[in-house]
Amino acid sequence: MTKKSEDQVVDVVLIGAGIMSATLGVFLKQLQPDWNIEILERLDEVAAESSAAWNNAGTGHAALCELNYTPQKEDGSVDCSKAFKINEQFEVSKQFWAYLVEHDLIKPDFIKPVPHMSFVRGAEDIAYLKKRHEALTQHELFKGMQYSEDHAVLKQWFPLMMEDRDPTEEVAATKMDLGTDVNFGALAWSMIQYLFSRDRSILKLAQDVKDIDRSKDDKYWEVKVKNLTTDVTRIIKAKFVFIGAGGGALHLLEKSDIPEAKGYGGFPVSGQWLRCTNPEVIERHHAKVYGKAAVGAPPMSVPHLDSRMINGEKELLFGPYAGFSTKFLKNGSYMDLPTSIKFGNIVPMLQAGIHNLSLTKYLIQQVRLSPEEKLEVLKEFYPDAKMEDWELAIAGQRVQVIKKNAEGDGVLEFGTELVSAADGSIAALLGASPGASTAVSVMLELLKKCFPEQMSSASWQSKIREMIPSFGRELGNNPDLLHEMRKWYSGVLKLDTAETV
């Protein structure tokens, strides 16, 4: 029989102990230190789902190498608008992290410098990459990006990938030395350690949120939580609730019954890596090299040969290979997808399915790939790859957002979506990539939507500018400010040293 404890009252409840909740928690603790914050995590450890190092690319998405952020339009030109936006957002993230490191609130060991490169094969894709380079380098944010089709130059950039490659093969690449590798799991854990080392902040693990309801007096959200260790159920009354539970956010948002949540659905996509087990091979590659996604592939499935630093060890990954599971979380239930289907979202979900048959076909093809076929995909990047040097590793689970567009049709969205109640008392983050890298900008957007009065106050404005010196200004239009910020945070985060992944 489930036991029940006394109700509690807090200012803020953060559901999910990943990078999103950690970022929002740190913001609120800095801006309003007298608020009570409680973080609830279903698992028995912090940042073990989407934020965990083995469950995401850790690229520090800045659109330096990810070709899916710069699509080619029908007229042949390259649309760089999303790349500019994402790069600006990552610049903001690095400023916020540098502030925390500079004030000894977190350690800088979660981030390392590593070149970001894009790699293509064949005349058509080479023409696209050249146009992309020309378009991006006209913008201040991307000055310094190099381009080459010369095999000799590319051998210097990524020798492992050029070894024994056909010398007549048409290939091209871009290289940006400003790239980073980020262990978002380590960053989230460091942030949460800071939070629960302060007064008025509590972290509770093994907490399963069963329901979220409005209190009868409409003053609070009543969060019903079951302790999975003690079997005790309690009600937390919160003035504000943030649902940052990754793939689990949709189910919890539905429980709130806010009108703004109506019509949203989710489509889960799983993934796998090939993880290199040969130290000699790992040591010969020092870059994050992204290729072009297959037709119909979701953004999280853009192939890349990826140098990582995880738990103090250098790693080399290739993938991800997409798959399909009805789970919304890696540690979720196979009933997650079926139980997420409600009367209000079934039509948008069916419409999105009909409009994305190419994605369905792609996922089926990926699921059916044999180990040998997976190796053949790797050989497009690394011709000398041998099966005995690689093992399969399971990546994280992502849930792509399904929503209604302006015409009322259900569409599949590749990105993140912030959903909040009209009164700003509850908010949830849905979706996936570029997610973690843009967490700081996403949480600033949340603060504007959910705390408009405080955000307009002189105290909050002053504190945010202290944490993010460029706040309110576009770095791409302010070259002097951009270079000043890059010099500052590179020094604090140790990105200007010879130590790289």
From TrEMBL:
Q: Does the keyword Iron apply?
A: no
**Reactions it catalyzes:** (S)-malate + a quinone = a quinol + oxaloacetate
Keywords for this entry?
A: FAD, Flavoprotein, Membrane, Oxidoreductase, Transmembrane, Transmembrane helix, Tricarboxylic acid cycle
Query: Single Gene Ontology BP term?
Result: tricarboxylic acid cycle
Q: Name one GO molecular function term.
A: (S)-2-hydroxyglutarate dehydrogenase activity
Q: Report whether ATP-binding shows up as a keyword of the record.
A: no
Q: What EC number(s) has UniProt assigned to this enzyme?
A: 1.1.5.4
State its cofactor: FAD
Q: Where are the coiled-coil regions?
A: none
Which pathway is this protein assigned to? Answer: Carbohydrate metabolism; tricarboxylic acid cycle; oxaloacetate from (S)-malate (quinone route): step 1/1
- Specify the domain of life of the species encoding this protein: Bacteria
HAMAP family per UniProt: MQO
Output the PANTHER family linked to this UniProt entry.
L-2-HYDROXYGLUTARATE DEHYDROGENASE, MITOCHONDRIAL
NCBIfam families assigned to the protein according to its UniProt record, in alphabetical order: mal_quin_oxido (TIGR01320), PRK05257.1-1 (NF003603), PRK05257.1-3 (NF003604), PRK05257.1-4 (NF003605), PRK05257.2-1 (NF003606), PRK05257.2-4 (NF003608), PRK05257.3-1 (NF003610), PRK05257.3-2 (NF003611)
Q: Which family does it belong to?
A: Belongs to the MQO family.
Q: What is this protein called?
A: Probable malate:quinone oxidoreductase
Protein species of origin: Taibaiella lutea
- Quick one: which gene encodes this? mqo
